[in-house]
Specification:
Elements (H helix, E strand, L loop, with lengths): L1 H7 L1 H31 L5 H27 L2 H26 L5 H26 L5 H30 L1 H20 L16 H17 L1 H31 L4 H24 L6 H17 L7 H17 L1
Length: about 325
């Protein structure tokens, strides 16, 4: 049933294809960075932690402001700008790395790449409402979310193989090309924000007022505050666990880039299964109880790392932990 929306709505089909190719490119850059630090550089996780920090920091610093921009300006143009800028940036990073082989140059590049992605994300979410009917909002967002999970699963596996064969520099170049292709697909969307009523940007104060009103809304709604707080806790735990798992795979299991791709893909497979379980039981499940269960599943299976499991056991553990993460 879900595929029907892609088939009957050409604009949403192009948006979906754009996400598909750019998400795959993101996985190639992810595996290229992991290969640089963990495989080639024999990093114990410290530099990967810094890279992860600089990737996520822009969401914290600029996320609310970029949400305001997505309401005040054409979302399609913001997405195209983000894709073109990311392509130029990643090509620059590839060139700088090929010439200097200096990892220090990667940190500011990753930060700027994260900032552009943070701009793209709310624009994409809002743009869905511009190109599909209201009755299809849930279905469209479900397709977008499922696609992101599946591309993480499949893309991580293939990206590890690509990096092993071509090397890190070529991997960066491939990612740049995916952003170019994504921008071209977005430009073909006929509906130029046909349903978006863009408010007049009277002054900088108007943007600040939009920004402040969002925080007032959060302050006045306890449920929203709790959900955001839970999301922050999960982000902290998952970020910490991500670094530890990568460190374990690199130092203990001695994984190459393809091995890292397999390990991360196994968690993606678990997330797909967890999402399917939740979808099939959506009318019967107690959501607050499911939150406890999901944390319990992740805690139990990640604790097995205390006995130093082997490669295939690690894949099985992360698969089960992925089920819990998807439910959460």
């Amino acid at each position: 049933m879900r595929i029907k929306l892609i088939a009957r709505n050409p604009d949403f089909h192009k948006l979906w294809m754009s996400q598909l190719v750019s998400s795959f490119g993101d996985r190639i850059t992810q595996m290229a960075l992991l290969s640089l630090f963990l495989v080639s550089g024999k990093d114990n996780g410290g530099q990967v932690a810094v890279i992860t920090f600089f990737t996520l920091l822009p969401y914290t610093l600029f996320g609310p402001l970029f949400g305001v921009l997505a309401d005040r300006f054409s979302r399609k143009r913001l997405m195209v700008f983000s894709d073109v800028a990311r392509a130029a940036l990643i090509f620059g990073v590839a060139g700088a790395w090929a010439i200097t082989r200096s990892a220090d140059l990667l940190f500011p590049g990753v930060f700027m790449l994260g900032a552009l992605t943070a701009l793209f994300s709310p624009s994409k979410s809002g743009f869905v409402t511009n190109i599909v009917d209201k009755k299809d909002y849930v279905e469209a967002n479900s397709i977008i979310a499922t696609t992101a999970t599946v591309t993480t699963l499949i893309g991580t596996f293939f990206a590890g193989a690509v990096i092993r064969i071509t090397g890190e520099t070529a991997g960066f170049m491939v990612n740049g090309l995916t952003y170019v292709l994504s921008a071209l697909l977005l430009l073909q969307i006929a509906a130029q924000s046909k349903k978006q009523e863009v408010p007049e940007v009277r002054s900088f104060d108007a943007l600040i007022e939009d920004f402040a009103s969002g925080f007032r809304f959060i302050r006045n709604h306890r449920l929203i505050r709790n959900v955001i707080g839970l999301g922050c806790v999960f982000a902290l735990i998952s970020g910490f666990g991500y670094i530890l798992v990568l460190n374990y795979c690199s130092v203990v299991l001695q994984c190459n880039s393809q091995g890292l791709g397999l390990v991360l893909a196994s968690m993606g497979m678990g997330m797909v299964l967890g999402g399917l379980i939740l979808y099939k039981r959506k009318d019967k499940i107690s959501y607050d109880r499911a939150l406890y269960v999901s944390f319990l599943i992740m805690g139990i299976f990640l604790s097995i790392f205390l006995v130093r499991p082997g490669f295939f056991a690690t894949m099985a553990i992360l698969f089960c932990a992925g089920v819990g993460a998807a439910i959460l």
